[in-house]
Structure formats: structure tokens, C-alpha cells
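Give me the fold.
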Amino acid sequence: MTWLAGLGFSPEDILVEPTFEVRLGRSVLKADSRSQRDPGKFNPRADVLVRHVDGRNLLIVEVKAPSEPLDDNAREQGLAYARLLRNGGIAPFVVLTNGVNTRIFDSISGKELGSEGIPPEHGHVKAGFVATGDIQELRATALEILVSLNPANLMLFCREQVALRMRKLRDINLLSGRKYVPDLYINRPEAQKRLHELIARGRRVILLIGPPQVGKTNLMCHTVEQRLNEGLPTLFYPASAIGGLSEELQDDFEWILKQGVASQSILAERLSNIARASGKQLAVFIDGWNEATIDAARSIDQDVERIVSSQISFIISMTTVAARRLLTDQTGDPSFIADSAGVNQQDLLQLELRSSFQNRNWDIVRLENYNYEETELAYQHYANLLNVQVPYRHRKVSDPLLLRTAMLSCQGGVLPESLEEPLWLGRLIEAKLGRARLRTPQAGRSLLTTAAEELLAHGSPIREDRLTARWGIPLSEGVPDGLFEAAILIRRAGTGKSTGVDFYYERERDFVIAYWTRNWDRWMDTEVSTIKSELADIVQTEVGRSSLEWFLTESTNNELLKKVFGDLACHDNPTVRRLLMSCAASNFWAEPIDPDWQVYAIRAGLKDGSMEVRLEAAEFLDRLRIEGEERSPLSTLAKDRQSIQNLLMVDSQFPLEPRTTGEIALRAFLALHSEGAEPEDFDEWDFDHGSSVTRVLADLAGTPEYRAIAMKAFAYIAPHAFFEWLTPQLPSDGKLAQEYTDAILDALGNATDRIHEFLYTMHEREGGMLDALKERSSNRRERKKDLESHREWFQRLRQIYSPIIKNFDCQELQQFLDDLEPEEDKRKARTPKSRPKRA
């Protein structure tokens, strides 16, 4: 202060710790604790600002303690403050001092001028101490630096961005009807763990997929808030509310962009710089990709490609039914997002199937209905939170939306013994209409029916003017606000500035289509020919397929499903046949669907001309193995040679190989194999036994038509039994025809892959069988017994593997043997024999 006074500055020209306002995005709040908080503004504080008598800014002075260095961070902060001044313009010079050393910088160029002073011939001096240059770009760079230097500023911005973007999804009112109510959130441990692991590994694109209304939005919102609480930079965008990702990012980050410059490369570079400076990965969550219009969805894919980097990851949620539409580009090839998540062309069908199978190469988190533990947790949480009694005879449901809806409806009361979703959905929609402030309840029902019909016909959000015209409402009035406030309808952004109207919940849309618009519940009294015609029409749009699948998989419609399924082959449209097969697989557990009908349905699916339908039947088989032990019809199918042959032919379109879509068929063979084995066939070790299925496959492997594919299936379901069958087939001179060799090598690939899984990774937590074998009892006698058992199995496998290793140079099998040999025997073999002592 003495120095400045000596230069002729008065106290009025020197501002100590001045604050100045800078806007970050549209809703960031930040102010110095000693200054007035101003909504939507960020108020950084400099140390000293020196002004000319006429109000022009001259110097920013950053002062440090004598022990503090005048480093680059101090320089960058001083330059940022100088460039962000608005009243009085940019301060052309920055001074750093710690009382011992002094550095002076040009605020525009950032170059150091030395510590002696500012030369009179300097351009800023000649211009009357007015900074010149690209002011907009300088301000943008300054804000980027300011946020980068202070992680707290970045986190503040992220919190406000998330709050703004999440406002139509989130509410703390339990009865608001919003998708994400934090107090109603039910933890999904497995999905949460995998999502966190993929983000921690720095995966560039991660997909969260599943059927509609199983909790994807809840998991996304919960994860976003969890990350923010942990101080991890995170952004959130609902796909339904954005026309293009780049435009929305530019809107949020306009403070780091030069006005008029909207290049994605500049945006990507500056976002990466901010993330890099923070030292943490920036995670951008995009919820409900399937809810965007077709053009907007493709635009999101292109924008992600331009912006993603080693510092920026994207986590994107979508429904499985939209997999092909979203994960392929205009030429039918995998989109950038698909490719980045590890999804290839053939994987698309696998994603659409409601399979528990998870390809290890995918950066994907699959979310389905609650598992047993999650169901129990949900019932307990809702019952305590909402004071609901759950009767002893109540039949619990695992559907997240149905359970939440019923619990909220029964708040303070008793849950009924059974929950029929159509009934509860109807009540819920009627209650929402009652809160929508419409003229009459009938008017609301009519409005929703019209909207549902439009969506069913066109498969995309409806233009508002089209809806009002259909309803006979003046365009000036628009769609009644109450329908949006009650969370029945929602406006979805299209390309440019266009918007469309859609249902807030897909499940409610499906209900209105099924019960109010098309009256599918009356099909029991309808001629089959009429139903066939309507089915072919319904599946033309994604909305139609989603609604029909939801309707036919309702437990109350099982008998109707059997009627509609009928003779599967009578449906000319393969999309219809596949959907019906999928519905049958989804309802395998329902009481009215008897085992004999299940056998009929699976056989019909396995002989269908569409390999996609056959895969649906294979998925049905796999589910029966996992879930349907007591009522399983697998024992009948395990002896059905024709069905086994039909399942093998899936290979013509989907190769029977692990980690591909064809693995679904292999798992179906495994289900049949497990069911078709006689008790005397079983050995202590899983891969050594045969079954009625392996006997059929061995027989088919002797025919040229089925040789290669039968071997692949045989080798996968029972590798050791396959080796023992194969060895006697090999010629004594070792000469094999090329096609026979190729078939065996393909089969060996399946066998070694399965053995590898069995030995090393069969149980994710406990490890594989190899780890179990190495564990020895602490009891000496038991330890000796364990070792002998280990040795016996090792010798048996060496006997099985040796001919295969010798004939096909299979190094993987050799590695298995090396790893399987007991450590005690390895040490013994390495210990040199002692020499006899000399006399």
C-alpha cells in the first residue's frame, strides 16, 4: 500500500479484496462469505485491484506471504482475475509479489515483463492503459482456468447443473409421481457395483440397459448424486429434454467458449482441460436415450464421438427394445456408442433378449426386475416408510414400478394378497387425472386415449399442435398444464427447437394402449384371424411392440397368451412370432402356463424358420434351467432329437461360440444336458459325465451335415466327455481331412473356454475349481486325503488331455495340466536328489 501511495494512487483508486460477478452457466451459485449472495452469479475475489482515476482498471496485484512461491498457479489466478473484470475493462497488467520477489505480467499475452517495471513503449501503455485483443476468448480462457485451479468451483457448477437438469425427474414429495424420489430409492447392489467398477476403470462409454420401468433412471440419478457427494465431477442430461448434446453442453458451458464459436473440438478440448486439471474423470450421464427422437438420438451418438476422451466418460441408459434402433447407424453398422461399449452387429439381438447372460467384453450394466434380496429389501423399506402392513398370504412381486405404486396407494393401510398390475395402473392414472384440474375425468381419459393412439401409429412424440387439433382445443390454450404437473405427460425435445408430447411413464402408455385404446383384454372373444391381423399391424412400431409385450406378459393374461400364440407358424410376420416366443419365455413361471404347453411352445420356437425366434426359444430353455426346477419340461426336450437338431441350426446365423450371441444356444444345450443326464452318468467332477443330449450330439457328429456344429455343442457342455469320445475317432497315423481338423479345432476352442471358466473364474468371489483344489485341511489326515484326491483327478485329466495335446498341439490344455499339478509334487520334482556320501 505504501508503494502504491508513493506512486500517486489515492485510497479511492485501490480496492482491497474486491469481488466481481461472473456468470457460470445458467444457475451456478457462488459468493464470498463476506459478500452479498446473488442468485445465478459466481463472485471471485482478487487481493488488490488498482484503478485509474477515471475508473479504468490498471493492475491486479496478487500478494503472497514471504514463504510462498510466485508459481504458475499464482500467475494463472492473477491473469484470470485480470481478464474477468468487466466494470473498467480488463486490467492490462498483473503483479505478483511476496514482499521478497516481484513478477509483472501482460494480462493479454500472459508474458512476463520482468520485475523492474513496465516499459513506456509497451503497447498497452501507448494505448492509454487499455487492453486490446480477443476479449471474448480471453474471458472464456480465464473462466476455464479459474474453475480448473479450484476443484470446489467445478463441483459447485456440477451440482447446480445436475439440479437444473434433473428437476423434471426428481422430487422429495413421496406422492409427486416423479421417477426419482430419493427416499423411495431401493439399492441395487450388483448393478451399482458393476457401474462403479466400469467408471473407475475409465471406460469411455458405458450402457445401462433393461426393460422399461425397472429402475434405470433411479439408478442413474442415485449414482449421480452419490458421485457429487464424493466430490467427483459429474453432469446429467435427460435425453428426452435435449435436441442435441453438443448444443446443451455449449449452453451449460458458454462461459468457457468464445461467443459464436460452437466447434465441438473446442468444447471437447476445454472440457478435457477442466477434467484433467481437476485430476478426476468427468462423467456425463445421459438418461433415457430411447426417449429422444430418432434424429436427436443419432445426434447424441455423433456428439459423444466428438467429445469423449480419456478424461470424459459417458454413461447412457436405454431400454432393451430400442437396441437395434439406437445402436446402429444409418447404414446398419454399429453406432459409435455401440462400438465403444463393445457391442457388435450380432450382439444387438442378444441385448434385446431378456437374458441373464452378460458378455464379458461389454461395458454394459443390465438391470432387470428386483432379485430376491432386492425384493425383500423393497418390501421392508416401503412398509416402514409408508406404514403399510404386508399380509402373511401376500404374493410378493419383483416389479419395481408395480410394487412402488401399490405401496404408495396403500399408505397407512394393508397391502392386498395379490397385485394385478393393470388394476393398479388404472387406479393410479385415474388418481393422477383427478389431480390434473381437467373439466371432467372423462375428458382426461379421452385426451390420453387419443395421445396413445397417435403414439401407437407413429412411434414417436406427438407435435403439440397435432394433439390439440385432435382434441379440438384451441392452439393458443395448448395441452392442459395439469397433465404435465401430475406426471402423466411430458414434453420431449426434438431436433432444433421442436418439442413433442409423450407419456411420462412408458408403462402407463402401454396400459392406455392395451386397455383404453385397443381393448386387447377382449381378445378372448375375438376370432383368431382378426387377432393375427392386428398383431401384424401393432408390431410395426417400437411403441406397439413394447405395449403388446407388456400386455401379454401380465400374469392375468396367460390364457390369452396361449390363444394368441396358437400355432406359432400361422403368424406370417417373424417379428410377431419372435415377440410371442419372448412373452412365453417371460411367463414360464406362471401357474396357468402348464409344462405341456411350455414343451409345445419351445418345440414350435426351435423349428421356426427365423433363427431369432429359435434363440428366443433357447433363452426360454436357459430360464427353465435356472428357475423352473420343479415344473421343468426339460426332461422331455432333452430326449427330443429333432429339437436338438433344430437348436444346432442356430449356428447358421449365430455361431455356437462363447462370448457371442450364439452362447445363448449353448446355454440351452447345457440346460438340456443337465436335465438329460442319468444319475449313474454323473461323476464327482462336472465335465466328466454324459447324458442323453451328448449321446445325440455324438451320433450327429458322425454325419457330414451336423459334424462341426454338433462337436461345438458337445465340447461346450461336457468337455471331458467330448475328449474321451474324440480320442478313439482319431486315425492311428494322425492324418485327418482338413474339414474334420477345422471342426475339431473349433470344438476345442469351446471346450478350453469352458474349462478355463470352470478352473479359474467359475465363482467370481471364491475363484474357480483350481483354488478349491489347492485348499488343504488343517487336519493332517484330512490334508493327506485332500492331496490324494487332487492327485487322482490330475492323473485322470492328464490321461484325457494327453492325446488331444499330442494330436492338436493344444497348449491351453497343457497349461491347465501345469497349473493343476499339486504344488507338493512340483516341489518334489524340483528338489535335486542327494548324492551318496563318500566312504
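Residues 27-41, 680-685 have pLDDT under 50 and may be disordered.
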